[in-house]
Prior knowledge:
Layout: E1 33-38, E2 48-50, E3 53-57, E4 62-67, E5 73-78, E6 88-90, E7 93-97, E8 102-107, E9 113-118, E10 128-130, E11 133-137, E12 142-147, E13 153-158, E14 168-170, E15 173-177, E16 182-187, E17 193-198, E18 208-210, E19 213-217, E20 222-227, E21 233-238, E22 248-250, E23 253-257, E24 262-267, E25 273-278, E26 288-290, E27 293-298, E28 302-307, E29 313-317, E30 328-330, E31 333-337, E32 342-346
Antiparallel strand pairs: 1-32, 2-3, 3-4, 4-5, 6-7, 7-8, 8-9, 10-11, 11-12, 12-13, 14-15, 15-16, 16-17, 18-19, 19-20, 20-21, 22-23, 23-24, 24-25, 26-27, 27-28, 28-29, 30-31, 31-32
Amino acid sequence: xxxxxxxxxxxxxxxxxxxxxxxxxxxxxxxxxxxxxxxxxxxxxxxxxxxxxxxxxxxxxxxxxxxxxxxxxxxxxxxxxxxxxxxxxxxxxxxxxxxxxxxxxxxxxxxxxxxxxxxxxxxxxxxxxxxxxxxxxxxxxxxxxxxxxxxxxxxxxxxxxxxxxxxxxxxxxxxxxxxxxxxxxxxxxxxxxxxxxxxxxxxxxxxxxxxxxxxxxxxxxxxxxxxxxxxxxxxxxxxxxxxxxxxxxxxxxxxxxxxxxxxxxxxxxxxxxxxxxxxxxxxxxxxxxxxxxxxxxxxxxxxxxxxxxxxxxxxxxxxxxxxxxxxxxxxxxxxxxxxxxxxxxxx
Length: 347
């Protein structure tokens, strides 16, 4: 068996910058199957990777820790409710929510619970951590700030709309979208709403912030670029259907999928289209970036890799069809989870 790269992939789109990781696509022209593992139920989330363990949440209600050297399960933590939440790593803890509205902090080496905290409805958004606070939105219409060490509530802000969008932290601001179609900016110390900008439909996409610009998709078919300080719309670009995919940023380009089955590459300063390419009937997962390559899973046709500059397709594997999961790119290996509960290591 080939050596599997022990890189670190710690949250949605690899890191807090939503760059999609900026990892390195394997140098091989084709990838072989190193191992595969079937979980008891579907995976609707993205895996994480750190210190030789791949962390995957599943609709079986468990967080699974899988050894990347052999594909065997190291441990699992069972919550008793379905999980649609991509976890996040912070130090020695891994944080995630489940459909019963609980947020958990679990020791990532031993799989033991450190704390749990309750919200009023399902938690699909990933926790985001800054300093000593873990931030997360809930479908109960509240946005929460929990103490990272204890899980004690520091503050909550009632938005009045379901929150499935994973927050982005920049400076003293927290950015996310909600089901009322608004993009919100909150003060991260108090939860005060600094501004909100309406779109024409609900938002599940998670924002990226780059160069003072908030990039986020909406079910109104548009990708928005907003001024981070004020929420003013700088530009918006209309696709053929709604956007649940979260944008990934590489240099001056933003990549995003649409439910029209196309992957788009847009110039961030202007919103001009660089290219678009059809990959499937529907795309809801987010793209990830590996140097000159952009990689994305589609709902029915598996994993696609394309040249980031032109959109030319370089490689395609029909395994790993996904609703929301993103592949993990780690040096000479790629890890893929799919909606049938299969986990693949390719290299």
